[in-house]
Amino acid sequence: MAKSNTDKIFSNFKEHSVAEFFKKNKQMLGFSGKVRSLTTIVHEYVTNSIDACEEAGTLPEIEVKIHEITKNERYKVSVKDNGPGIPKKHLGKALGQMLAGTKFHRYAQQRGQQGIGAAGCTMYAQITTGKPVYVVSEYADKKLTCNVAVDIKTNSPTITDEVEEDNPQGAHGLYVEGEFGEVNYERSAQSPYEYIKRIALANPHVTISLLEPTGELTTYPRSSEIVPKKPKEVLPHPLGLGVSDIVDLAHRETDKYNMSSFLQERFQRVSSAKVDELAQVMSGKTEGIIYLDFKKKPSELSWEEAEGLIKAFSMVKWIAPASDCIHPIGAEQIQTSLAHILAPEFIAVTERPPKIYKGGVPFLVEAAIAWGGQAGRRLSNNQVTSDIIRYANAAPLLFDISGCAITQAAKDVDWKRYKLKNFEEEAITVFVNLASVHIPYTSAGKQAISQEDEVYQEIKNAIMEAARRLQLHLAGINKERDRAQRRNAVIKYVPQLSHDLSELAGKNTKPEELAKKLTLLIETKYMTHILGDESGEEGLEENGKEAEDADDEKEE
Amino acid sequence: MIKKTKETQKNSRQDSEVVINKLENMGGHMLKEIDEEVSPSFEAPLRSKSNVLFDEKIGCLHLGEKNETRSFINVGQARKFMQTVAIANKCKKFLKEDAHTSIRGLFYQLKFSLGENLDEELFSEQSESNPLIEDLEVSLGIKREDLNLNTDRKGVVAGPLVLRDRFGGDETLIDGTKQGRSGWMIPSDVDNGMTIEELDAEFVLVVEKDAMWQRLNEDKFWRKENCVLITPKGQASRGCRRLISKLAQKKLPIIVFTDCDAWGWYIYWTIKTGSMNLAYLANDIATPSAKFIGVTMRDIKDYEFLGNLTIKAKEVDLKRAEEMLNYEWIKRHPEWVDELKVVLKTKKKLEQDALQGPSLSFVGKYIKEKMEANRYLP
């Protein structure tokens, strides 16, 4: 890893002080409930690791270890990756300063996007155990070992016990280890165990392992050697932002811009003519929208003014944001990892073009259905149930299940139409990834997708598309089963018939020879059937259904 | 595929070599089909009601032109096909060994498991094998007796006829006048090594009931009237019908005497025209010249005492009478139409036994009188 490259990645670090805020509102950031808190910690470290590896063009290899210190209370978590490591000068900011992550101010589609990231975990360790996190960072020719903590008053990193060594082999990677309280480990649907599995499912290029407190090691080796392309960085589009985003961006603006140039420089598709249009809307004459002085310094933008600005954005026509910043996982990749991890009997993956919501935010839905094999969820009593696994930009969404548009869309599909009598009891995994620079999350916890009409409908259509292919497959299985049954119903009489027929004809034909020929005849006959000569009625019926579905989709 | 050749069947049993050839040809055709990569099959005339026709010229039922093909590679037919070939093969063995068995014996010969992996027997019930024997008969144009399969013996004969029976290496002359009180039991196969040596009768009287036969035998009716006296003991077996048919070919009038009820009529018509079930054999076992002497409803007019001896007709008798009115081979006879209409109107029936009302020997007198008056139903 070249030094200049590593530097470049971390040269964008900026500071923002919300440490106090975090301490008081940790539940908003995923630290609520003992199991969820542990999953959030794993999530923060793992997504950081994958993003860092991808940026450096490395195939990620990640080891997660969870060690129990006090049951149902205190656990040690460590995550090791083979990424570029973090140089000394950025380390403190990356792990010991809130909102100083690689993501917050950069509008590229990435997994994390919370901006709390690893520093949030450091803070959580601190406030629950009073201990700093232990870090080993190998980068370029250095190996740095230290403890990192957050000075909550000033939101600045405190680095202690620092040891810097040479790294002659040029090893690279980051090892983070922290001790966390108010957490609990269990293998539930929202546990780190499930999280890691889902990471593996959506990221076939990642090798990831989990060592559980029980000592059990689960490894998901990569099934693809392709590192996803680096996400393209784009400026935010006015339609993709919420009030808090605008306030955050404006308040972090240190250059001496006024609002007019701030909007033009920091957003895409905002021209001076658009600013004039906005100024027109916000001249104080529009009902329900307050006045905004566009010569005002961004850092002085009030919440109310930001609200007005958002309203004004929605009243002006915009050129749609560039959609080339959307990076789906890719149908082939999804297919590979589902096959690899779930070993299902059948997989259908959709490939659909990007769509737009809120009048201008591009997004893309990838849906997949895995059926049979290890698909679905196995309950403790070995009962099989269907499983809906949700992703936003390939990051698993484990919480807020019922409030999520993906869950809703999957449940709203009329599965009976697709030959699944009882969706809940099928060995089926419905995989949905929503890719967008602006994921419409329901809350700051970022664990559920809100029911935006366009997004919900597109998710449902994508699932239905995959379901149609499943239906055809299931119909095929039925046909296959019939065919096999017919074949067997005849073939079982071959030995007896061959014996009698060879004796009856009295021509010294060997029964074995006859049996062979008869078997071949039977196999051929029932083979032809499935290849289509008898598929008449069934085929028509299926086509009919297909057409029906297509119509539905149009209506919807 | 073997086409049933519409050969005129010889009235005697087919030479076993000929039958073996037919069976081997059947197998040979199937082998050829397999080599031509088509499903082995054989063809047989359709034996459903729709293909049973009445031949007015001859006066018997026969099978029509409709053929059906039995094919092995067909889920619905595979088992039966395999079973039919198994029967054919087994019968070929019987023929080669000159061994005979009953259709029940055949069933037991073929009642075995199809293999360790199959929870299935080649045949598990005789009701499965019986119709397949008929399939073979029809398809090959032979009778089951030709396959060395015996049917149940039923029926008794007495009277002035001498039969030569070559059986099991022995040869016996059977004198119909020397069978004592029980008569000679008619075998299932009256063709196989069986010839009529002497026949000195003027007619044949077929009596439905054994009790009535015994009555007439005791009364020396066959001696007094110089007739062959036969009872099929209810429905006539194939052997019995075949014997009647053979006697008819010797130009003897065949006179049938049954109850005046559904069962009695059925027995008569089966003897006369053949049954629908065995329509494929009708040429051999039907006796179109047979005449019905009684008991008839008209007899009540001629024999007053019978009026008090009627019994109430059962539902089945009435239903049968109605059906018979629809059969073309019956409704062409106005006498029968009248007779059946009386039955339907009065809802009564008459049994043979009622003729013993005035005296035990009245039966003989009744028959003689009716014969003299030529009062038959056709």
What features would you describe in this structure?
The complex is a heterodimer of chains A (556) and B (378). Chain A is an alpha+beta fold. Chain A folds into four domains: 3-220, Histidine kinase-like ATPase, C-terminal domain (Heat Shock Protein 90); 238-315, Orthogonal Bundle (Helicase, Ruva Protein, domain 3), CATH 1.10.8; 323-471, Ribosomal Protein S5, domain 2 (2-Layer Sandwich); 492-555, no CATH class. Chain A contains 16 helices and 16 strands. Chain A has helices at residues 3-10, 19-24, 34-55, 88-96, 117-129, 192-202, 243-252, 259-266, 272-281, 303-315, 331-342, 405-412, 453-491, 494-505, 511-533, 536-555; strands spanning 61-70, 74-80, 133-139, 142-151, 156-166, 173-180, 207-211, 217-220, 346-349, 355-357, 361-371, 377-378, 384-385, 387-392, 395-397, 428-435. An eight-stranded mixed β-sheet of chain A has the order 5-4-3-6-2-1-7-8. In chain A, a hairpin with a 3-residue loop joins strand 10 (355-357) and strand 11 (361-371). In chain A, helix 7 crosses helix 10. Chain B has 378 residues and is of the alpha/beta class. Chain B has two domains: 16-150, Winged helix-like DNA-binding domain superfamily/Winged helix DNA-binding domain (Arc Repressor Mutant, subunit A); 156-372, 3-Layer(aba) Sandwich (Dna Topoisomerase Vi A Subunit, Chain: A, domain 2), CATH 3.40.1360.10. Chain B has helices at residues 16-35, 78-97, 103-109, 126-140, 210-218, 221-225, 238-249, 262-273, 282-285, 299-302, 315-326, 328-331, 334-346, 362-372; strands at residues 41-45, 52-55, 60-63, 67-71, 101-102, 149-150, 156-158, 161-167, 170-175, 184-185, 194-199, 203-207, 227-231, 254-257, 291-294, 311-312, 348-349. In chain B, the strands form six sheets. A six-stranded mixed β-sheet of chain B has the order 10-7-13-12-14-15, with helices on both faces. Chain B has a three-stranded antiparallel β-sheet with strand order 9-8-11, with no helix packed on it. Chain B has a two-stranded antiparallel ribbon with strand order 1-4. In chain B, strand 8 and strand 9 (170-175) form a beta hairpin. In chain B, helix 1 (16-35) runs antiparallel to helix 2 and helix 11 runs antiparallel to helix 13. The longest helix of chain B has 20 residues, at 16-35. Chain B is globular and about 75 Å long. At the A-B interface, helix 13, helix 14 and helix 15 of A face helix 1 and helix 2 of B.
